[in-house]
Amino acid sequence: MLAERDARAAAEVERSWHGACELLSHLAAGRQLPPLTVWGLVLHPGEQAYLSFAAGYSRYYSGDGTYTHVDGLFLGSLPFMAAGYAFTAMGNNARRSAAAAEAAYRWREHQRTQVVLTSERVVCNANGRWLSFYFSGVTAFYPEPMNWSVVFEFGDAVPLRLVGESGAAIATYAAWALHGRDGLHEHPALEPLRAAVRNAARR
């Protein structure tokens, strides 16, 4: 059973990689994608949806780092009061440490999401609603197809990371949307995909 499951997972990864290679080859050749019909999500006039995937979603930001400080009042014997104040101090230290850890920057909101790629934006159904990330607002773009992930930075929003078997295809489409065919031909991070396309053409 475990071996069968591993075989299915490996086959799905291979299909996803081949799909990303085919997408790169298609777009790099200047061919257009057929429009995709989507329901629920409302597109803008003139906007076209092209691809839809499931992916892992997360955002990069810090917490507020606040915690509740407790001051205890203990009446009774000296050992009882000493123990009470000691436990209160220990509790405050634990809450302060937890708050400091929460304040650190890290990837948060981890969840599985539906991603729609359109002519204008990346749209994610996260936390029960559709969130739009416009290509025009992207300030930095880090595709990592070998790690099945892509990270976007924005001027007015916290970074977005999409990961999983669809990561290579999402990275490929985003490179095309942001940089055109030149991005597909020249972006260093896409070289593993380009190499796979070249190797397939030689067979």
From TrEMBL:
<protein>
    <submittedName>
        <fullName>Uncharacterized protein</fullName>
    </submittedName>
</protein>
